[in-house]
Amino acid sequence: MTTKRILLYAALAAGAFISVFPYLLVVLTAFKTKAQLNSTEPWLPGVPPTLDNLGRLLGGDFPQYILNTVIMTVLLTLGQLVFTTFAAYAFARLRFRGRDVLFWLYMATMMVPSAVTMIPLFLIMRELDLVNTWYGLLAPYILGTPYGIFLMRQFFKGLPAGLEEAARIDGAGPLTVLVRILLPLCRPALGTLTIITVISSWNSFLWPLIITSGDATKVVTVAIAALKVGIGVDYNLMMAGGLIALAPMVAVFVFFQKYIVRSVVLTGLK
């Protein structure tokens, strides 16, 4: 093994350790008592480990917050897949006046930070009496995002036009062409969009924090932030909540890492 290869592997190992270390601290702190947290180094496990922190969370309202997050993630993902696909197909294949201008105006909204639109969105939801409701929580994002539409549009434009033309000659309409001809070829792009939407929805914090205030619609990220109350901070309890919130994303990575790698390649190419 050459010196260059040794240095390369050493750099990769150091980068991997730096990336994983914060998650290791979350796991170690979640299984420590307050006394162990103050008496041991952060990177050392507590002996003996304790499940009290997880028990305190799971014995309260935290399971309801997990269920709320799952519902939000599933609904947003389904909405993104359906509405994004239809919009992308219209921009890629259908011809109508102002199509390209409308598309690029919509894409221009990607340059606007999401935090800038939070106050206008909240005011709209307040006027519609949708604050602290599921409708208000889901409405701004369930109909698609500029990035998702751009990704699917580019994938549609990369498919051979002859397939669609042959189907039209056989009498197929636009909906039949989309559902029976193009969508089966779009599985890589749909997988990419699904992974991106699941991760972003599960980790969403700012909009749920602004639009929700009751337990019926509170999600995991907001619930973890709410653990920091009063004068002190219960780091053990917060890290236990972080561990519970992190576990589904780790499961997604373990079971779908092949598709995640494919999605990274696809998004890089597009």
TrEMBL record:
Keywords: Cell membrane, Membrane, Transmembrane, Transmembrane helix, Transport. The keyword Lyase does not apply. The keyword Disulfide bond does not apply. InterPro entries: MetI-like, MetI-like_sf. Its main location: membrane. Pfam families: BPD_transp_1 (PF00528). The chain crosses the membrane at residues 7-31, 65-91, 103-125, 137-156, 239-260. It is a multi-pass membrane protein. Residues 66-256 form the ABC transmembrane type-1 domain. It is found in: Cell membrane. PANTHER family: ABC TRANSPORTER PERMEASE PROTEIN MG189-RELATED (PTHR43744:SF12), ABC TRANSPORTER PERMEASE PROTEIN MG189-RELATED-RELATED (PTHR43744). This is Carbohydrate ABC transporter permease. It comes from Nonomuraea maheshkhaliensis.
